[in-house]
Amino acid sequence: MSRIEKSIEIEAPLERVFNYIKDLERQPEWMPNIKSHIITSDRKEGVGITTHCITEEGGRRIEWDSEVTEWEENRKIAWECKPPLKNKGSFTLEPTDKGTKVIFEMEYELPYSVLGKIIDMVKVKKEIEENISKGLENLKSILE
User: Fold this and answer.
1) In this predicted model, what pLDDT tens digit does every residue of 91-136 receive, in sequence order?
2) Which of 6, 15, 34, 56 places its Cα 20 to 30 Å from the Cα of 129?
3) How would you list the strands of the sheet with 60-72, edge to edge?
4) pLDDT on residue 2
């Protein structure tokens, strides 16, 4: 599995940052690769909510369903994609002297065994890292 971790400090109160991030349907506003993120469960918050996400990675449209596996108010939201996609990740928030540190972590595995690993090393991981960095910068710009 490939692993990505990025973080950014946002000069805004932790509660404000969490309240924005927890509205998962707003992710297309700040994550450049996410075209749509819709909550598909009756509840909108907490462990067990489900979502359907559409992204564009490597020039390809990718759709998947996921489930929130951790939800700690004002601290952490983690998710795991449903098969066949192998992807899990989280947003963790930590208070700082100036505001909030947002840590994004993700583990994923591309299909196609050896070919998928080569494509990941050559192109996909770099593109995902760039999208995450840009998304975190966008989040900072919105919340400061």
Assistant:
1) 999 999 999 999 999 998 766 666 656 665 666 778 888 999 999 9
2) 15
3) 2-10, 100-109, 86-95, 76-81, 60-72, 50-57, 34-39
4) 82
The CATH number covering residue 29 comes to 3.30.530.20
Confidence of residue 10 (pLDDT cuts 50, 70, 90): very high
Task: Assign 3-class secondary structure to the chain.
Answer: CEEEEEEEEECCCHHHHHHHHCCHHHHHHHCCCEEEEEECCCCCCCCCCEEEEEEEECCEEEEEEEEEEEEECCCEEEEEECCCCEEEEEEEEEECCCCEEEEEEEEEECCCHHHHHHHHHHHHHHHHHHHHHHHHHHHHHHHC
Give the number of domains in the chain: 1
Contact between 83 and 63 under an 8 Å Cβ cutoff? The reply is no
pLDDT for residue 123: 66
